Every structure is written in C-alpha cells, then in structure tokens.
Amino acid sequence: MNIAIATQGQEAQSLIPEKLVDAGYLFIVDVEAFEVKQILSAVKEKTDVYFAKECVEQDCEAILCGEIEKEAFEILAKASVSRYNASGHSATQAVKLMNAYQLPLIREYKGGPGCGGDQHHHHE
Length: 124
Description:
The chain is α/β, with parallel strands linked by helices and 124 residues long. The chain has helices at 47-57, 70-78, 91-99, and strands at residues 2-7, 25-30, 35-41, 60-65, 82-85.
C-alpha cells in the first residue's frame, strides 16, 4: 500500500506542517515494504494541488498532512484517498500513529461546511 506524507524537509524525522500548502516535500512510501519510493519537491504555485495530483497518480491510499485547501481536498476526495491530520508529527511518527489508528481523519477542506470558522461542526 502506498501512502503520501507531506513534510517540511527531506528526512524521515521532518515535521508535517500545519497546512498541506506549506509542505516542502511529499514522500511516497510503500508501507508494507517499509521503503520510500519517491520524494517530490514543492512547486512555486499551488503546491497543495500538485501534491494532491501526485498522490492520486502514485496510487496512494492515504495522505498524512495538515489542513487542506478546497481544490486539493476535492482532488483527494474524488479519488477516495484517505486524509489524515498528522501536523506537528515527524513522518516516522505519523506512519506509526496511522498504523495504530491514532490520527484523526480530515473530513472537510479548510473553511468548508464541515470545519473552520463560525461553522465548526463535529461529525462523530
């Protein structure tokens, strides 16, 4: 199973930023083989959209990241990619937490009807 991890740096101990758009790198990881298949670098514009498209292209089942803006969120949701909030954790910690079912799902894009601002609702 491939997953994507959006980080600030190129090392396994690099932190996952608060927002996907602020990530500098996207690790494509085969969790069964415990190997990093690829590390993609951020682009100048719309990094979150680029990373979302790459996540889908690389056949990732999940992405570990921070808050997701609407356009990137919709790309991931349409492709049925699970979205986990792992901001503040290292890439290594995030994978361990995901495997232990301890990362919260990102159910809505930033500012969307399901979260953020005055319209904050919890769907439990």
